[in-house]
Design goal:
Blueprint lengths: L1 H13 L1 H38 L5 E5 L7 H6 L4 E10 L1 E3 L11 E5 L12 E5 L9 E5 H7 L6 E6 L12 E12 L15 E4 L1 H7 L4 E10 L5 H11 L10 E5 H45 L3 H6 L4 H27 L8 H5 L9 H26 L5 H6 L7 H8 L4 H11 L10 H29 L11 E4 L7 H8 L5 E14 L2 E12 L6 E5 L7 E5 H7 L6 E6 L2 E12 L17 E4 L19 E6 L5 H11 L1 H7 L4 E2 L5 H8 L3 H27 L1 H9 L4 H42 L9 H27 L3 H7 L1
Helix pairs in contact: 1-9, 2-7, 2-9, 2-11, 7-11, 7-15, 7-20, 7-21, 9-11, 13-14, 14-23, 15-20, 15-21, 15-23, 21-24, 22-25, 23-24
């Protein structure tokens, strides 16, 4: 054992520069991998920890009119309720350049001390929350701070008008407020609902009491339920309670905040998945590349093995010494990796905004497991080379491997009459050599092929992601334009008047927003009704659209979560009426959202048929039947886009009366929008992997140029010119790259399509996969060009060798 220790110390000191470089390389690669793994965990859990820190509610309840006249107090007395935090939306907004308030920014004020302190505590980015008794203080979420260019200490002019007053300069009541805090709300981490996308301003309780009910726009209450109580069951209790409070107008909207939280979690998860995939691919590539470097260091030290063997050291002892050298370097690198991984760079994306404890974070389980795994993987990678190099008297030969004849491709090139530069280049690319001319051809080819396969898979997956984002049919939209009036309505007669004369319109379908109770869950839903032409429905994945109110279609996520199947009959709750409905299909939904209610999203949603328009929550036919939205289809052809643009312009005045932009052309669901945010991740990953692949090729060409100097010297002595020697290197790297492309591209495309199919099934969208042929061809051509660029300088160096000097020393 003492002999092994002495040998290891001698070898490490003799080649300390090489071993130090290996330690740094291990530390960097392992540190990045561990950072990505820990970051993936931290990213994935950030929003859940945000909700815990903010004491998040379970349900948001909002009556049709108001619950401030005793309803919320009664709600807090229900046995299923743990806490209630009421909040009022004010008919107010920042004063615009025209002197009137901009109501697109939502101004809300807590009614009592619960909101923001005991329930729904926002994350403070700067400053503090407004004091309850100071009407001149206000806080703003990070969206509002960016849109309105505010910071702590900023002065802001607010304007408020009574709900029934005409909006003029004279009717605006002005207030000067100071921003005391910038906050992150649960909905502003990843805006999901319609209201979440707008700036949010949190005023003081004193301001609400000063203005009073005349300036109230709406109100609601965040409710914390007791353990085991479902949102659906609570919603029925909340609805029944409205009978005692006429000011609620007999109906409440109940939004399952846990559904919204799950939607935001799904929005953050792509970043975590991207980090995890990045870590996996980088780890595999790093093991190959760093293992190759470590094997090279062992090979350089193996020249003394015959002498050591003659002095009495066994093959087992020599191999143990080599593994101990690599193990010590790996241990030092792993310790360095721990320092790199314990950095404040994570989490990434929206999770960074949600992270309740930003800054330095040490993931002890990941780091504790990562260090020994790093050492074990590298030792496993070099175990066989170390054993072969320890062969007594045959270290160099064992490292190189014996080649009995020229590679088949080189023999084929020679028989075909190829130029000598091509023949020699192909041979050097495929022949590992022996002794001092040995080069790790097989590992380099495997590493390059793996990198190319990973690049091809990343590009294939990324192309399919872009295809999803740009193809409305894949995310459920089968119409051209939607007219969305939110809580306002349009009657069939009104629609006939202004749609019947619109050029290009071939048909329309009416619809209402709502929620559907099923299996104890509140699912965002729509109900459609015929207008003109065929009834339009979302994209079907299985089954058929509903044909009556006793039929329903559900998203894939809903079916999977509740363990349901197409064809089953299940009890559902619609407008507080329980009934039995048959599931007739599985569908994918675009974005249908209303106010602060959680919208439909890919595999999450329900659709049924509205045969009778009813007043919400009453079950009675309304005096003025109306619908919340209209789906329109335009005639295809050269004027398709022009007709849609003209229609949008013609609806400007009508939409202004509704207080919003009601012509909706982009209904991408949140799931698609969230994945669109990371659509550049595959390209970034591909770039990193391409660098690793080029590094493998570059190392091989440089090593080949040094160890095959004698071969190049002989070729020059036989009459080859410098240009021809450079061409040999070019053929060598082109052959290696070509073979790696032949193996890696088909494997990568297949892996990319298979991964996309799994991804699509998980999202609940059509599993349609495309192959980016032009991009693949461009990638192959770029790989060959870059490989030759990497090999240019080593080839130039080999071409300038002096044959006499090399042959004399060799």
């Amino acid at each position: 054992m003492r002999a092994i220790g002495s040998l290891v110390a001698h070898q490490l000191l003799a080649a300390w520069r090489g071993w130090a470089a290996l330690v740094l390389l291990i530390g960097f690669a392992a540190g990045v991998v561990l950072l990505a793994v820990a970051g993936a965990q931290r990213t994935d859990s950030a929003y859940l920890r945000f909700l815990e820190a903010s004491k998040a509610s379970d349900v948001l309840v909002s009556p049709v009119n108001t619950g401030l006249t005793g309803y919320y107090g009664a709600l807090s007395q229900l046995g299923d309720v743990s806490a209630v935090a009421p909040i009022a939306g004010l008919h107010a907004g920042p004063i615009g350049p025209n002197g009137v308030p901009d109501f697109s920014a939502a101004v809300a004020a807590p009614i009592d001390g619960w909101w923001g302190h005991l329930l729904e505590v926002p994350k403070l980015l700067a400053g503090r929350l407004p004091a309850a008794d100071r009407l001149g203080e206000i806080a703003v979420d990070q969206i509002g701070a960016a849109d309105l260019h505010l910071h702590v200490g900023s002065r802001l002019a607010l304007g408020a008008t009574a709900g029934n007053a005409r909006l003029t300069r004279a009717t605006v009541r002005r207030f000067a407020v100071r921003v005391v805090g910038i906050v992150v709300l649960r909905g502003s981490v990843v805006p999901v609902t319609v209201l979440d996308h707008e700036p949010a301003l949190i005023a003081s309780t004193a301001l609400f009491h000063l203005l009073g009910m005349r300036y109230r726009n709406d109100d609601g209450a965040f409710v914390k339920l007791r353990p085991g109580i479902t949102a659906d069951a609570f919603g029925r209790e909340a609805q029944a309670l409205t009978r005692r409070y006429p000011d609620t107008q007999g109906h409440v909207f109940a939004a399952d905040e846990r559904t919204q939280a799950a939607t935001i979690e799904r929005a953050i998860r792509p970043s975590a998945i991207a980090l995890a995939i990045f870590a996996l691919v980088l780890a595999v590539t790093a093991v190959l590349v760093i293992g190759q470097v470590a094997a090279g260091l062992l090979f350089a030290a193996s020249a003394d093995n015959p002498v050591l063997s003659a002095l009495g050291m066994t093959r087992r002892e020599l191999a143990a010494a080599g593994l101990m050298e690599v193990g010590l370097a790996a241990t030092a690198g792993a310790l360095l990796a721990v320092a790199v991984a314990a950095s404040p760079l994570m989490p990434i994306g929206p999770a960074r905004l949600a992270e309740p404890d930003p800054g330095m974070n040490v993931n002890v389980p990941v780091l504790a497991a990562g260090a020994p795994v790093t050492v074990a993987l590298l030792l496993a990678r070099v175990a066989w080379p170390a054993w072969r190099l320890a062969s007594a008297g045959q270290g160099e030969r064992a490292a190189a491997g014996v080649v009995s004849r020229r590679p088949l491709l080189a023999r084929w090139a020679a028989r075909a009459g190829a130029a000598v530069t091509a023949t020699v280049g192909v041979r050097l690319a495929l022949e590992p050599g022996r002794g001092r001319t040995a080069v790790p051809v097989r590992s380099a080819l495997a590493g390059t092929a793996l990198s190319i396969a990973a690049v091809a898979a990343a590009f294939t997956f990324g192309a399919n992601l872009v295809h999803l984002v740009g193809t409305p049919r894949l995310y459920g939209k089968t119409w051209d334009v939607a007219l969305d009036f939110q809580f306002s309505t349009v009657t069939p007669q009104m629609a006939e008047r202004f749609l019947g004369r619109v050029p290009g319109v071939t048909g329309w379908t009416f619809g209402n927003f709502g929620t559907l109770g099923i299996g104890g869950n509140l699912v965002p839903a729509i109900a459609v009704a015929g207008g003109r032409g065929p009834l339009m429905s979302v994209t079907m994945l299985a089954g058929h659209p509903p044909s009556g109110p006793d039929q329903v279609v559900l998203g894939s996520s809903v079916l999977r979560r509740l363990g349901l199947q197409v064809g089953q009959s299940v009890p559902i709750t619609i407008s507080n009426r329980r009934q039995i409905a048959r599931i007739t299909g599985r569908v994918v939904f675009p974005n249908f959202g209303q106010g602060s209610l959680t919208p439909t999203d890919l595999g999450r949603g329900a659709e049924t048929v509205a045969t009778v328009v009813t007043r919400p929550g009453t079950g009675r036919r309304a005096a003025n039947p109306g619908y919340n939205f209209v789906l329109l289809r335009f005639a295809p052809g050269p004027r398709h886009r022009a007709d849609i643009a003209a229609f949008a312009r013609s609806m400007t005045a009508t939409c202004a009366q509704a207080g919003q932009k009601c012509v909706v052309r982009d209904q991408r669901p949140n799931g698609v929008t969230n994945y669109a945010r990371v659509e550049g991740t595959p390209e970034v990953l591909a770039a990193v992997l391409a660098v690793f692949g080029l590094a493998v090729l570059g190392q091989l060409i440089m090593l080949s140029g040094r160890r095959r100097r004698r071969d190049f010297a002989i070729l020059k002595a036989l009459g080859l010119l410098r240009r021809q020697v450079s061409l040999i290197t070019a053929w060598q790297v082109t052959t290696l790259t070509g073979l790696a492309l032949l193996a890696g591209v088909p494997l990568g495309i297949a892996a990319g399509r298979w991964t996309w199919a799994l991804f699509a099934r998980g999202l609940g969208i059509p599993p349609v996969a495309i192959t980016p042929v032009p991009l693949t061809v461009l990638t192959a051509a770029t790989a060959v060009l870059l490989a030759n660029a990497i090999a240019f300088w080593p080839g130039h160096t080999s071409a300038r060798l002096s044959p006499a000097q090399i042959l004399r020393t060799e």
